[in-house]
Amino acid sequence: MEPDDPAEALTELREQRPGALGLLQLAAGSGLAAYMVWALVLQPGFRRVPLRLQVPYIGASARQVEHVLSLLRGRPGKMVDLGSGDGRIVLAAHKCGLRPAVGYELNPWLVALARLHAWKAGCAGSVCYRREDLWKVSLSDCHNVSVFLAPSVLPQLEDKLQAELPPGARVVSGRFPLPTWQPVAVVGEGLDRVWAYDVRGGGLAGKAVSSGVPIKAAPGPSSTSVPGAPVSQTG
Ligand SMILES: C[S@@+](CC[C@H](N)C(=O)[O-])C[C@H]1O[C@@H](n2cnc3c(N)ncnc32)[C@H](O)[C@@H]1O
């Protein structure tokens, strides 16, 4: 019931104030906690990366990892995961024989976690996780590249891959396809989908990005090779 007496109403309001204050404190506390997580856990290492190139951590699902491996298994040469997170793809790649397997990751917490996982798996000395900016590492000796990045950075990534990868290299992109390259194989459905691309012509002059040769993806109901993938050949 509403109090008629203004003095009584004021007293009631005063009594309610701690509740409102409590709510305010809760909101401020949550905001501060969220900021601390962002500043201390998610943000470290990214200060020098332009905002438009920052990609948050979302680990690949077991199925996505499986699909990446189905597209890379048996291939010789160095394998790298650009933005390796907690290192799951690199570790799985190493275990299935892709060597050397290297992860580049800016977030130091994730690099530490990746090393812990490798140590627990008995692979501490064999897999390599480097705390480096993927936009600054040279890819000239990489033959197998895995990327699980945001669509907003993929156009720029395409340019880097095109300019630096040697002919014969394969790129697998998870969740989102490279915007203009033609895949040679696609595995999985929805967000589990992974696209494979073969680099034919390396160097700045090279424009070819797909061998056009259908590759044999690991058996599975959702795997599709792309025999009719358009090929632009220059290299
Ligand atoms: C979507 S997660 C993918 C993680 C991992 N590849 C996986 O699939 O489990 C993207 C990762 O890229 C990292 N990353 C984003 N920008 C980076 C950069 N410039 N250099 C190195 N790592 C970066 C993020 O910290 C994040 O861990």
From TrEMBL:
The lineage, from the top, is: Eukaryota, Metazoa, Chordata, Craniata, Vertebrata
What are the recorded GO MF terms, alphabetically?
Answer: protein-lysine N-methyltransferase activity
- What this protein is called in its record is Adenine nucleotide translocase lysine methyltransferase
* Keyword flag Nucleotide-binding: no
List, in alphabetical order, the GO biological process terms annotated in this UniProt record: methylation; regulation of mitochondrial ATP synthesis coupled proton transport
Q: Which UniProt keywords apply?
A: Membrane, Methyltransferase, S-adenosyl-L-methionine, Transferase, Transmembrane, Transmembrane helix
Q: Name the source's superkingdom.
A: Eukaryota
Does this entry carry the keyword Transmembrane? yes
The family classification in the record reads:
Belongs to the ANT/ATPSC lysine N-methyltransferase family.
Which gene carries the instructions for this protein? ANTKMT
Q: Which residues cross the membrane?
A: 20-42
Residue ranges, compositional bias (Polar residues): 221-235
Q: What organism is recorded for this protein?
A: Propithecus coquereli
Where are the stretches annotated Disordered? Answer: 216-235
Q: Spell out the GO cellular component terms annotated for this protein, sorted alphabetically and separated by semicolons.
A: mitochondrion
